[in-house]
Design brief:
Radius of gyration: 34 Å
Largest sheet: 7 strands, mixed
Helix content: 40-55%
Shape: elongated
Structural class: alpha+beta
Distance between the termini: 19 Å
Number of domains: 3
Strand content: 15-25%
Length: about 600
């Protein structure tokens, strides 16, 4: 609880005790008025001042104005206790609101702790502590255990364990070694590392995340915007209605005091606090709760749309698969798989192609360079190894050199190896499916997602195998990057709300075109944070289902509050207009409903 909230709580307690004393004391006339005015002024002076200030500035149609008019009217009619009670309970509601907003901000505020305080820069052999904004590209920074990494870069010396929980929601620390990327905002847990800066602070991961979170609350959902507009027109209508209720009936049936009291009840009941406070609070709580799990939602409008998703379209590489190739099968004609892999690794020694890298990573021993090697465009590699002519490449290369390649058993990219026309065997390189991918698709189906689609540039047989293994209902294969936008546009014709999930680097156009763009594993990816509506800060596709559940729960809470608040207020307004609801019931219909709506809204944070 903040200092101001503690002060308000003390004020409420003092006013409550004084009000209780005033009810118990036997008093009449002006003495009774003064006794009730003391707790009234103690608890309501700031509301009265705010209402007066707004009246003087011409902006009087707000809840402070309604409370002021209603309570002063009650004092004039001699309902001193009701006037003080209305102001007291209004302040209790305001305190509840402040505490609720503070709690919902706590999740997002904790994310703000990733902001680095300083960077330790090596200049002319000295370590200087500078603001991260003052560090240039290419400079070397030193990060010691317990410190946050201030800027994105590459580790050039040392190894350590990094905690990325504030960025991704993943509690398990990750080991980081020389040559690997260091992400700003991560906490260095163990060793001293030196990092070469790869991006300036304003373009760093931590800066992008903070900018995204800070602006999220500015983007209102349609429902939230409607409530704001509704309150703007609603309050003047209520004031005019209360005025008519106080003046028109007495002209025909008399009883001015009775009808003025009913008008005051009408004013207290009609205060739109429950809606104006609880609806934005629900959205803010949903966004804050999602951020705790490493799901960054750019605004309430995207949260609202996410709850309506019925079709989820996946990019394959980097989203459902790891995006890194590895050796999945080896077949050697002579049965010596290790020797065949060693031969291929030597032939690919100088190549930096991803498939060549996979071959070299798959071989655990020392790789010696070939005596000679040349790349054959579109075919593979021809190398001289220990005086032998070795060919490593596709089926066309085998046929060109007279070898008879065998059919591979696994789906993937096959590299065939021959010595001149003698066929030696093959190695299959494939992209590994993420271990969570199948569960992610299953979770989406359990949530009622009608259609799951995979888009890929792979051949149909590869796409079919992956889709079948993951339980994806449909796939479109052999797509060029430009074809993906057209594929998504065709799927959008079904009018179901569509979410596209991509790795955020090559998929920016598709992320922008979908109803909801979700960037997967976007740490360090500027393209993802710019193009996507929702950013998942790690590689776990199961968080797509979590994001949908959070969105649906938040929207459910918002609708509950709207229906509850309007239903109670309409009922008590009608009862008040015909004389069956007094000031105490009006207090419940205003402050009680607001407190209940706020408590319900706080569930969105969990």
């Amino acid at each position: 609880m903040k200092k101001r909230q503690k002060r308000d709580l003390l004020r409420i307690i003092i006013a409550s005790l004084l009000l209780l004393t005033a009810f118990l004391l036997p008093s009449k006339g002006y003495i009774r008025l003064i006794i009730f005015l003391i707790p009234y002024i103690i608890v309501g002076y700031d509301v009265l001042i705010s209402a007066l200030r707004n009246i003087l500035s011409g902006q009087m149609m707000d809840e402070q104005f309604l409370m002021t008019v209603a309570t002063i009217g009650a004092l004039i009619l001699g309902e001193y206790g009701e006037a003080a009670a209305v102001m007291l309970f209004y302040q209790i509601g305001e305190l509840f609101q402040g505490i609720a907003v503070g709690k919902s901000r706590k999740n997002i505020a904790s994310l703000m702790n990733i902001r680095p305080d300083m960077a330790r820069v090596l200049r002319d052999g000295n370590e200087l502590e500078l603001s991260p904004e003052d560090v240039s590209l290419g400079e070397i920074i030193v990060v010691k255990p317990g410190e946050k990494i201030p800027l994105d870069g590459i580790i050039i010396e040392g190894s350590t364990t990094l905690s990325v929980s504030a960025l991704t929601g993943e509690s398990m620390p990750k080991d980081a070694f020389c040559g690997e990327k260091a992400i700003s905002g991560a906490v260095n847990l163990t060793g001293v590392i030196k990092v070469r800066v790869e991006s300036e602070y304003e373009n760093s991961t931590v800066s992008k995340i903070l900018e995204l979170v800070e602006s999220a609350s500015e983007k209102k959902a349609k429902l939230e915007s409607f409530i704001t507009r509704f309150a703007r027109f609603y309050t003047p209508i209520v004031v005019c209605s209360a005025l008519l209720l106080a003046i028109v009936p007495p002209l025909f049936v008399g009883g001015w005091a009775k009808w003025v009291e009913r008008a005051l009840v009408f004013l207290v009941v009609s205060c739109p606090c429950a809606l104006v406070i609880s609806v934005p609070l629900s959205f803010f709580g949903g966004i804050g709760g999602a951020s705790r799990h490493g799901i960054l939602i750019k605004g309430a409008t995207h949260l609202e749309m996410m709850g309506k998703v019925r079709t989820v379209v996946f990019d394959k590489t980097g989203t459902l698969t790891k995006g890194s190739f590895s050796v999945s099968e080896i077949f050697a004609e002579d049965g010596d798989n290790d020797s065949l892999l060693a031969l291929a690794a030597r032939a690919e020694y100088a190549s930096n192609h991803p498939i060549a890298d996979s071959i070299k990573k798959g071989f655990c021993g020392e790789i010696k360079p070939p005596e000679n090697a040349k790349e054959l465009a579109g075919l593979g590699i021809e190398a001289t190894i220990d005086g032998r002519s070795i060919f490593v490449g596709n089926e066309r290369l085998m046929k060109k050199c007279g070898a008879d390649p065998k059919r591979t058993q696994k789906i993937g990219t096959a590299l065939h190896i021959s010595e001149d026309e003698k066929y030696l065997g093959y190695i299959v390189i494939s992209d590994e499916i993420k271990p969570e991918a199948a569960d992610a698709v299953k979770l989406l189906k359990n949530l009622g997602i009608k259609k799951t689609v995979m888009l890929t540039g792979d051949k149909e047989e590869v796409a079919s195998t992956v889709a079948s293994e993951l339980g994806i209902s449909d796939f479109i294969s052999e797509l060029l990057p430009s074809d993906k936008v057209e594929a998504v546009e065709n799927l959008l014709l079904s009018r179901d709300t569509l979410a596209f999930v991509g790795d955020g680097i090559n998929d920016a156009p598709v992320l922008s075109r979908a109803d909801i763009g979700i960037a997967m594993g976007a740490l360090g990816s500027d393209a993802a944070i710019e193009a996507a509506d929702i950013v998942l800060m790690d590689d776990n596709p199961k968080k797509i289902a979590m994001a949908i559940k959070i969105a649906r729960k938040t929207m459910s809470i918002v609708k509950q509050n709207i229906v509850f608040a309007i239903s109670v207020k309409v009922l008590v307004l009608l009862l008040g207009a015909i004389g069956y609801a007094g000031m105490w019931l009006a207090i419940f219909a205003d402050v009680g409903v607001m407190v209940l709506a706020i408590l319900n809204a706080m569930r969105a944070m969990k």
